[in-house]
Amino acid sequence: MLSNLKEIGQDPIMKLMVEFSQDPRPEKIELGIGVYKDETGNTPIMSAVSKAQAALLDSQHSKAYLGLAGNQAFNEATKHLILGGSGAFDRASALQTPGGSGALRLFVELAKQLCPQARIWLPKETFPNHPLTAAAVGVEVIYYPYLDPLTQTVDEPAMLAALSDASAHDLVLIHGCCHNPTGADITLEQWQALAELAHRKGFMPLIDLAYQGFGEGISEDITGLRLLVNHLENAFISVSYSKNMGLYRERTGCAIAVGSSTTRSELIKKHLLQIAGCSYAMPPDHGAAIVAEILGDQQLFSLWQQELGEMRDRLKLLRLKLVLSLNELGNTQFDYIKQQSGLFSLTTLNIEQIERLKSEFGVYIVAGGRINLAGVGLSQCGYLASAINQVANTN
């Protein structure tokens, strides 16, 4: 059996991490890994998370199994956070998953089980795990246009024209906010157009909500999502707390299924639990217990909101500082960066320019040109701008 094993190439982002760690240059900057970093380059534990953990140490007296759906308090709190007060709340069900990726995997597997000819439509620019998940399940991937390279905003006409070919057998994945890798978000008017198109064509929206709170605010970032699910009978939502609570290694996610009724959404949940039971069985509890503690305590919730707001404001300041630093060098090519949201923006740098950034300046970004703005400190924006300007002005 094992004689059939073949070599697998190293993950490009992990490879970049190793190269960066071995680079002795003190001025080096790592913009590849998709995690939030503070001004010192650390990915800190949020104060709200630390306080919640301390409370759990005092109150948690067992590590017994909680069941396939995971932490029920977490599930209800997450459902309230995303859909509370909306028309879809009462016809939605939720279950804890190992990260947002775990929720995505469950939804894609369910689609394949129920409809073997199901396809999944992905934005042309998307998180690499999306097509890998589809391939692992055996679901065909179709890419739809997303980013207008001239304006660096969503190409609404091209997107809607392509998705007009989606059928009632298809999933259509939509980034909930703070699009990865472009930072270009769907406007409220575009969410409305997508809702109307989904209603007309019958396709199933699969909303990947991985960066809630990093755009304009916890509630503001899901205005479009709520508009869409209120307009439709059915929708799937994948929620991740890796970024907005800094629970990366805790693998804390949630799958929310919106159905035409409470009964239908609970039936969807039963099928999702059956799939979960055949793979990871039960999700890890620690991260979910922390989230439940924070969302269930007004003081902790307020502290989390404050901390997340500070992180969001820092990202906006970094975007502005980088653009202004480029402008001081006479470069307006990347002005769009200050208009975008979240951790990421997609540069127009080619592979040779990206390699020059690494070899000549110690600036590490992934192939394709995505940069994580949180990877640079305010004091480093001038150096980064100079490096980008030098490589961007040569072919």
UniProtKB/TrEMBL annotation:
Pfam families: Aminotran_1_2. Residues 27-388 form the Aminotransferase class I/classII large domain. GO terms for biological process: L-phenylalanine biosynthetic process from chorismate via phenylpyruvate. The keyword Lyase does not apply. The keyword Transferase applies. Gene3D superfamilies: Aspartate Aminotransferase, domain 1 (3.90.1150.10), Type I PLP-dependent aspartate aminotransferase-like (Major domain) (3.40.640.10). CDD domains: AAT_like (cd00609). GO terms for molecular function: identical protein binding; L-aspartate:2-oxoglutarate aminotransferase activity; L-tyrosine-2-oxoglutarate transaminase activity; pyridoxal phosphate binding. Keywords: Aminotransferase, Pyridoxal phosphate, Transferase. InterPro entries: Aminotransferase_I/II_large, Asp_trans, PyrdxlP-dep_Trfase, PyrdxlP-dep_Trfase_major, PyrdxlP-dep_Trfase_small. Its cofactor is pyridoxal 5'-phosphate. It comes from the Bacteria. GO terms for cellular component: cytosol. SUPFAM superfamilies: PLP-dependent transferases. Belongs to the class-I pyridoxal-phosphate-dependent aminotransferase family. Homodimer. This is Aminotransferase class I/classII large domain-containing protein. It comes from Pseudoalteromonas luteoviolacea CPMOR-1.
